[in-house]
Amino acid sequence: MLRLIWQINKKISLVLNEFVRNYHLNKVVAIMADAPIFFAPVFLLSAWVYWAVKHNDEKKKDLIFIFFSIVASILTNLVIQHFVDEARPETFVQPLIDHLPDASFPSDHAAVSFAFLTSLYLFGYKKIFWIYLPFVILMNMSRIAAGVHWFFDVLVGMFVGISWAIIFKKLRKNSFLNKIANFFVKLARIFRL
Prior knowledge:
By secondary structure, the protein is mainly α. The protein is 73% helix and 0% strand.
């Protein structure tokens, strides 16, 4: 099974990396491999300001739960990376972007982007979901094409992110987590946020 995964990883990495090099898309891939991840904090901050002006505390609590799903995804990846030390594809293909010399599996970009994307959909931001979806797909494909992640790094990161988004949507009615969200909303009101 591991041999099959390795063969699939190698083939997909080679095909995407060669495609990018043959069509001189290096700069596009370099931008797409990182830039879309910054949409999450920009959206959360601007949506928070919007709902603060509208005085809608329930929507602000939804944003907190979206944030929780992102944080849980990152923490889950850190735990997995502690036990699984997968080398990046740079030993196999020429990387197109610089990255931290850390574990490759699972992809943090995939986990965060899919936690955010899925949460957008589940918490009712469906138009924003459809706008952001192609950027998430392109970003994660660019991570593979750039030679910083294997296909299965992205696949498992995607699973982690989607799972946490679903879990936190279900936990939205949990009284303990709602108390935490209420605390942050009240604290923000003190500072007029």
